Each structure stands twice: as structure tokens, then as C-alpha cells.
């Protein structure tokens, strides 16, 4: 059980920064017509490129 907990803690340390990086990269992009685009959180507004 300790080994699983150790592996999970290592994976979770990388998953949060990865999710943030993907959110920042896709803050300005739109989805394709066949996929669902959820509402973007307001906290990502500061990462959008101003035009």
C-alpha cells in the first residue's frame, strides 16, 4: 500500500502543473465542431492574448 501511495504522490505532483500549462496554452483557442468546449474560468482571462 505504501508503494501505491508513493507512486500516486509522484504522479499528482506532475499532473497539476501539466493541467495549468495546458489551460494556459489553450486559453485563446477554440474547439473543433465535433468536441465540446466548456466555459472557460474567469481566472484564465489574465493569460489570454490581448488583441
Distance between the termini: 52 Å
Strands, count: 0
Helix/strand order, N-terminal first: H
Q: Which ranges are low-confidence, i.e. pLDDT below 50, for 5 or more consecutive residues?
A: none
Number of helices: 1
What general outline do the C-alpha atoms trace?
Answer: elongated
Helical content stands at 40-55%
Task: Please report which band the strand proportion falls in: under 5%, 5-15%, 15-25%, 25-35%, 35-45% or over 45%.
Answer: under 5%
Rounded average pLDDT: 77
Query: What is the radius of gyration?
Result: 16 Å
Report the major sheet. none
Overall structural class, as computed from helix and strand content, comes to mainly alpha
Kindly list the characteristics that best describe this protein.
single chain; mainly alpha; 51 residues
